[in-house]
Specification:
Elements: E1 2-7, H1 8-14, E2 17-22, H2 27-36, E3 41-44, H3 48-57, E4 61-67, E5 70-71, H4 81-86, E6 93-97, H5 101-107, E7 111-117, H6 122-132, E8 136-141, H7 151-164, H8 172-176, H9 197-203, E9 211-217, E10 223-229
Helix pairs in contact: 1-5, 6-7
């Protein structure tokens, strides 16, 4: 098995076979917490207008998402695991749109199998890939706002890659130290209302969940994010 690390929506388009779309801060951490909170299903979309249209179809739904890190006006929740933990999501359909993560899912048009990637379920991701046993795996780090390399996504890609090869090089300290680099924004006072420090700690809880999230393309062009226990 060979592993290639790509970045941004362009990387998602290039991925073939098995693709892992990685967004640690915060899209695919949020989706794991949402399923753990009892959400019945998650639908990812790239456009705000599509999210609003989907809510008209699914009456028992909530809008979750951000643009430029902040909750979209009129949405129920931002892209924050802290908010998700406080919410009553049992039986709810989550309609999710973000600047980076969900864009990757929508753009992974050439991959046969697409799953999400984050620290909180990285162990399950590795086990799932080993079960599939593909010749090649593409790890796509979506980056900050899908345009700038992000330390956390690249570190998560490295963690998954090393584990697939039986290596344990990435340490908990490496992950914790993200608070001094790409994660330092969660500790800035100006961001407390939409990116609190608790988001950082929730997104870096390695292997908290034993399931993967598989992306299934819908006939309307959006993505059903399906929970699969591992």
């Amino acid at each position: 098995m060979t592993v290639e690390i790509l970045e941004f929506p362009e990387g998602a388009k290039k991925a073939q076979g098995v693709a892992v779309i990685i967004d640690v801060f915060r899209a695919f951490s949020v989706e794991c917490f949402a399923y753990d909170a009892g959400a019945s299903q998650i639908i990812a979309t790239s456009e705000i207008s599509s999210a609003i249209k989907l809510r008209e179809t699914y009456r028992n739904s909530v809008l979750v998402g951000e643009r430029n890190e902040k909750r979209v006006e009129g949405f129920d929740y931002g892209n924050s695991p802290t908010e998700i933990l406080k919410a009553d999501l049992k039986g709810k359909v989550i309609i999710h749109t973000t600047t980076a993560g969900t864009q990757g899912l929508v753009n992974a048009v050439n991959a046969d199998t697409v799953i999400t990637g984050s620290f909180v379920n990285s162990g399950a991701v590795v086990r799932y890939i080993r079960h599939l046993n593909p010749d090649k795996v593409f790890l796509v780090a979506m980056g900050y706002r899908a345009t700038q390399s992000a330390d956390e996504d690249l570190l998560c890609a490295k963690l998954i890659s090393e584990r697939l090869n039986g290596i344990n090089g990435v340490t908990e300290k490496d992950i914790s130290d993200l608070q001094y680099s790409s994660g330092k924004r969660f500790f800035e006072k100006s961001n407390l209302n939409f990116s609190p420090p608790t988001d950082f700690f929730l997104c870096t809880m390695t292997d908290r969940f034993d399931f993967v999230l598989k992306a299934v393309r819908r006939s309307d062009g959006n993505i059903s994010v399906v929970k699969t226990d591992i």
